[in-house]
Amino acid sequence: MSAASVEYPERPASKSRPMTLTEAADLFRDRMPGYRVEIIGGQLLVTPPPDGPHGEVLTDLMLPFLAAGLHGKESRLIQGIGLSLPEGPEDYAIPDLSLVDADYGEHRTENGCYDPACFRLVLEVTSSNYQQDLRTKVATYAQAMIPVYVIIDRKHKRLHVLTDLTKDRYETHRVHAPGEIVNLPDSIGAKVSLDVDEILKAGQPRTS
Fold first, then answer.
1. What is the pLDDT of residues 66-107, one digit of tens each?
2. Burial readout 130-166 (b: 16 or more C-beta within 10 A, e: otherwise)
3. How far apart are CA 34 and CA 48, in angstroms?
């Protein structure tokens, strides 16, 4: 899911010290139910609620993971789980879909998030400001050492798979078009294949 940076909301007059990023994020969540709030690179990012096709893509994407047995004793497939980031003490992201180790609960950090060490894969489905997923979060997830990053780019009708971490970057970035079948790395714990055409079709706006 993509997001845009926003200005901090005003602190109530009774408060004299500057508002922290975490406090600003909490305030946005209270004022804007349904919006996703993240702190990346010391910036507050707020994402509007997703549209229906965005949700359909996520549902379709979960099916091959479930069929491969990746939501079981060894790993869990979770939407909207918080991921702590190494860029700053308050930084965190909320990927659309994550594959985590089954014992992820033992790796809880601040703000209800989890240590990146228990993440096997993160996946984002683009919305209006797709640059966040295609640029900002590429660097962000690489710095967090997430082994596999998948992007469903609905605007350009492409599926991206980023792998092979070296330090803080992905050495391999493959872009797949409709008609291709993508085999995800076995390192996620099982063999999973994604039909690019079917996934992208699910993400397109419906017409009457």
1. 999 999 999 999 999 999 999 888 999 999 999 999 999 999
2. bebbbebbbebbbbbebbbbbbbbbeeebbbbbbebe
3. 7
Distance CA 145, CA 121 (A): 10
Q: List, for residues 99-128, the tens digit of each pLDDT value.
A: 999 999 999 998 889 999 999 999 999 987
77 in Cβ contact with 65 (< 8 Å): yes
Residue 110 burial (CB count, 10 A): 11
- Round the CA-based radius of gyration of the chain to a whole number and report it: 17
Kindly report whether the global pTM for this prediction surpasses the value 0.70: yes
- Helix (H, G, I), strand (E, B), or coil: what is residue 91? coil
